[in-house]
Design a protein that fits this description.
- The chain has two domains: 328 residues, ABC transporter transmembrane region fold (Up-down Bundle); 241 residues, Rossmann fold.
- Helix content is 65%, strand content 9%.
- It contains 21 helices and ten strands.
- Strand 1 and strand 2 form a beta hairpin.
- It is elongated and about 125 Å long.
- Bound molecules: adenosine-5'-triphosphate (ATP).
- The site of adenosine-5'-triphosphate has 11 residues, from helix 12.
- Adenosine-5'-triphosphate binds next to helix 12.
- GO terms for molecular function: ATP binding.
- It is a multi-pass membrane protein.
- It holds the Pfam family ABC_membrane.
């Protein structure tokens, strides 16, 4: 793929420009080539089965297309022989057995092979889809945060659901119907040439309007289907966004406006689908009319020749049969051609998603931590560091910062100042735009993912719980932990008591009634998770302003125990947390403007001193 990447239009790399409809010919051919590469990659493991299926399709259709030939043979050769045999008082069995046997053999071959290749197609298509599904999931999960923030989960869902469904429809029946229809037409065409090449010329002429109609449909429907993939994705994005943000939706009474937005998006999708059906509505009658006119022309031309004795009756019957049948699969082919167009559009999007590469890449030749046991002591150092999201505008202009092992650092500052950005760099959710960031002297981007994840843990604001029991959620910190270790971790952060009071204690399912935890309880579970993981560096984005006082106190105690003697960075929203910090960093407009112990900063009388004074006042009030 890399060779192609050199000369591709940069506007279309990965998912970029996937909603664009006005592709240039070069872009279109790039996107098509990418889809083909994906299809070939998917087909590789089932290559032999695919070849076998193709062979069966060919043989089965050749057998089916031979029916008119056998009928012509039966009428023009079999019938006279049958009559003369009967007249001569000889047995008619050889003639009847010959013609009848050939017909039965052709019918059985066509029918049995149809059964086998239908079965094989299902297996092949399901195997390819399974691979693709798993591939899309694995790939998307590994893409960096930067990608997910830009692309949104709604789009990922639409790729994984509606796009893969389009592909499933095509692979399940579309491809075999398409190929078998085309094969049948080809063989029937050949049989017409064998029967009478003059009539084949009529067929050739008839294919001119057919080819024009199909080409017209192809061009139009490609654009419409590409548009429908975009509108379907937009509809799903809106749906997912509404449902994931249902609390905000209800709190702000956004239901009505959401309804109308959704209706608009769904109507656009409907319009696109109607347009594609309309196109088909023009193609289909064109094919039917051309087919019928061709048969009439063949009948006229052939009939006249039968009358003057230059064409056998059997051949005419066979020609009419074949002429009628040659156009039959055309409709089927055209119909599956729409499935094909829809699936092609889907494949374009899915292949774009798969072309995305993580911006935060795992080191190819990881450097081990100085400590042989892979245990970090937790010293962090930024040197000449700069950062802007997506390499864009600098959010954190050039800075140096050293955090010695074991220090508890509170990061404060107004909203949007760059606090989260700073700490996310340490968890390597993003890479620096320039400069270096090291853990125990090893650049973060040279560490193995295992070393990084073991030593640096970030507890996010949302305290996300996965479906499963409370114990399983804590064990995420260290999947091989024993029950006793899980409980010890919960005890250490002060979560044990409330967990025991749940209906099934540690086994309570967090998604079930009774297992739904409060914000503070979720926070404690995520503390226990981090405690169990026992990282050298702990990052906390604490957003506990919504907690009531008792649970806040509980969380505060859990927090103190969690911090222990590890290096910790806490985005402190509450000044009570700052009091337990060794050092405070005040961030303003992406720069550390104050740096010192809480007492020093209060004494210095700067921003932090102001904040602190305001907080003290609020407590008194
Ligand atoms: N994923 C992102 N992509 C682009 N810009 C971002 C992204 N996340 C944050 N920013 C921008 O970076 C700046 C710093 O944001 P950051 O989240 O670090 O602030 P913060 O100090 O943590 O704020 P808060 O206290 O509100 O969480 C803001 O201007 C924000 O708009």
């Amino acid at each position: 793929m890399s060779r192609r990447q050199d000369r591709q239009p940069p506007t279309l790399l990965g998912t970029r420009g996937e909603e664009r409809l006005d592709l240039t010919p070069a872009e279109r051919s790039y996107v098509r080539a990418r889809s083909w590469t994906l299809l070939k990659d998917l087909a590789r493991p089932v290559k032999w089965k695919l070849l076998l299926t193709a062979a069966l399709v060919v043989i089965s259709n050749a057998a089916r297309a031979s029916f008119p030939l056998i009928i012509a043979w039966g009428i023009d050769w079999g019938l006279p022989r049958l009559v003369s045999a009967l007249d001569a008082g000889e047995s008619a069995v050889p003639v009847v057995a010959g013609v009848g046997g050939a017909y039965v053999a052709a019918a059985l071959t066509a029918g049995l092979l149809l059964g086998v290749y239908t079965w094989l197609t299902a297996r092949v298509s399901q195997a390819m889809l399974l691979d693709l599904r798993v591939w899309v999931f694995r790939h998307t999960q590994r893409l960096s945060l930067e990608f997910h923030e830009r692309y949104t989960s709604g789009r990922v869902i639409s790729r994984q659901t509606s796009d893969l469904d389009s592909l499933r429809e095509l692979l399940d029946q579309g491809v075999s119907s398409l190929v078998s229809g085309l094969m049948f037409m080809l063989f029937t065409g050949i049989s017409i040439v064998i029967l009478d090449w003059r009539s084949a010329l009529i067929l050739l002429v008839a294919f001119v309007p057919v080819a024009i109609a199909v080409r017209w449909y192809q061009v139009r429907s490609e654009a419409v289907y590409r548009e429908s993939r975009v509108s379907s994705a937009r509809m799903i994005v809106h749906f997912v966004e509404t449902m994931t943000g249902i609390r905000a939706v209800q709190a702000f009474r956004k239901e009505r406006s959401n309804d109308s937005t959704y209706r608009q998006l769904a109507s656009k999708y409907r319009d696109d689908m109607v347009r594609s059906l309309n196109l088909f509505g023009i193609l289909q009658p064109t094919l039917v009319i051309t087919g019928n006119l061709t048969v009439v022309a063949m009948l006229l031309f052939g009939g006249l020749r039968v009358l003057d004795g230059t064409l056998a009756v059997g051949v005419l019957v066979a020609l009419l049969l074949a002429g009628k049948r040659v156009f039959q699969p055309m409709e089927q082919v055209a119909m599956f051609y729409s499935a094909f167009q829809s699936a092609t559009a889907a494949l374009e999007k899915v292949s774009g998603l798969l072309e995305e590469a993580p911006t935060v890449r795992e080191a190819e030749h990881p450097v081990p931590l100085p400590d042989t046991a892979g245990q970090s002591n937790g010293r962090i150092e930024f040197t000449d560091a700069e950062f802007g999201y997506g390499g864009g505008e600098l959010i954190l202009p050039r800075f140096d910062l050293t955090i010695p092992a074991g220090q508890t650092v509170a990061v404060v500052g107004q909203t949007g100042a760059g606090k989260s950005t700073l700490v996310k760099l340490i968890a390597r959710f993003y890479d620096l735009s320039s400069g270096s960031l090291t853990l125990d002297g090893v650049p973060l981007d040279r560490l193995s993912a295992a070393d990084l994840r073991r030593n640096v843990v970030m507890v996010t604001q949302e305290a996300f719980l996965f479906s499963g029991s409370v114990a399983e959620n804590i064990a995420l910190g260290r999947p091989d932990a024993s029950d006793a270790e899980i409980q010890a971790a919960a005890q250490a952060v002060g979560a044990h008591e409330f967990i025991l009071s749940l209906p099934e204690g540690y086994d309570t399912d967090v998604t079930k009634r009774g297992g739904r935890l409060s914000a503070g309880q979720r926070q404690l579970v995520s503390f226990a998770r981090a405690f169990l993981a026992d990282p050298a560096v702990l990052i906390l984005d604490e957003a506990t302003s919504s907690l009531d006082l008792p649970s806040e106190r509980q969380v505060q105690q859990g927090l103190t125990r969690l911090l222990g003697d590890r290096t910790a960075l806490i985005i402190a929203h509450r000044l009570s947390t700052v009091e337990i910090a060794d050092r405070v960093l005040v961030v303003h407009d992406g720069r550390v403007v104050e740096d010192g112990s809480p007492a020093e900063l209060i004494a210095a009388g700067g921003r932090f001193a102001e904040l602190h004074a305001a907080w003290k006042d609020s407590l008194v009030g």
